[in-house]
Design goal:
Elements lengths: L9 E3 L5 E3 L9 H8 L1 H11 L15 E5 L5 H8 L4 E5 L3 H10 L4 E4 L2 E2 L4 E6 L6 E7 L1 H8 L6 E4 L5 H4 L5 H6 L2 E7 L6 H17 L4 E5 L4 E7 L1
Parallel strand pairs: 3-4, 3-9, 4-5, 6-8, 9-10
Antiparallel strand pairs: 1-2, 7-8, 10-12, 11-12
Helix pairs in contact: 1-2, 2-3
Length: about 230
């Protein structure tokens, strides 16, 4: 079996394979990397090569409590570990990605195989990286906060395939108060007009401001925008 020699350059992926980020050509665009090396390279481009999480605002700092909603195989969490986050919490609903996440985790990672939704129950999630769906258990963000007894969340990263638009509708003031910094991969709705997308994105950013985030920055992109917020 292949062995990981540098956890910030090599990590396990689906099918028991190892991705070696050091082999990727750094001068290629995100799309070019994806075409040449696969979906893992696209994730590595934003998480381990260009560090999207820390490109705007105060970023992840040493000792932070870092929470990753939609951790996939752990590239964002590895970024947080590299930046010396104190404790890392990962949520990943896809069981295949979750099994890989368990292989990539360090001792200060806590991982949960569950989805975060606006209500408790079950939802359909995509089987990564394919279009097939499977039904998984889901809980609310408030339930997740209570489950881990957080007194603070220094950095919350969110990549939950469009559910960010509904998950935060039912978050209590108590939970909002615990969050200090956020980086959200905001999935643009391709079924509506550009004008409607702009309004929807603005309303989402306004919700963050209403819940105590003094600084909100939106990097608009065709399919997946990035929204950064901090207090």
């Amino acid at each position: 079996m292949a062995i990981i020699s540098d956890r910030y350059q090599q990590l396990y992926t689906l099918g028991g394979k190892i991705v070696d980020v050091s082999r990727f050509e750094r001068n290629l665009s995100c799309n070019e990397l994806g075409v040449k090396y696969g979906w893992e390279a696209t994730m590595a481009w934003s998480n381990l090569i260009h560090d999207d999480l820390n490109s705007v605002g105060p970023g992840i700092r040493e000792g932070d409590i870092y929470v990753d909603l939609g951790a996939n195989i752990g590239m964002s969490a590895l970024n947080a570990e590299r930046r010396k986050a104190g404790k890392i919490y990962c949520v990943e609903p896809d069981v295949d990605c979750y099994e890989v996440l368990l292989r990539n985790k360090a001792s200060n990672w806590i991982v949960d195989n569950v989805a975060i939704s606006q209500s408790e129950g079950s939802i359909d999630v995509n089987q990564w990286p394919y279009a097939n769906t499977r039904k998984v258990r889901c809980i609310t963000f408030d339930q997740y906060v209570a489950q881990h007894n957080f007194d603070r969340i220094d950095f919350l990263k969110v990549d939950i395939e469009g559910h960010e638009k509904t998950v935060f509708n039912n978050v209590s003031n108590t939970s909002w108060d615990k969050i200090q910094k956020m980086a959200i991969e905001y999935h643009e709705d391709q079924t509506i007009t550009e004008q409607q997308r702009t309004a929807e994105r603005f309303n989402f950013a306004a919700k963050l401001s209403e819940n105590g985030f003094y600084y909100v920055t939106v990097l608009s992109r065709p399919f997946q925008s990035m929204i950064y917020a901090w207090k």
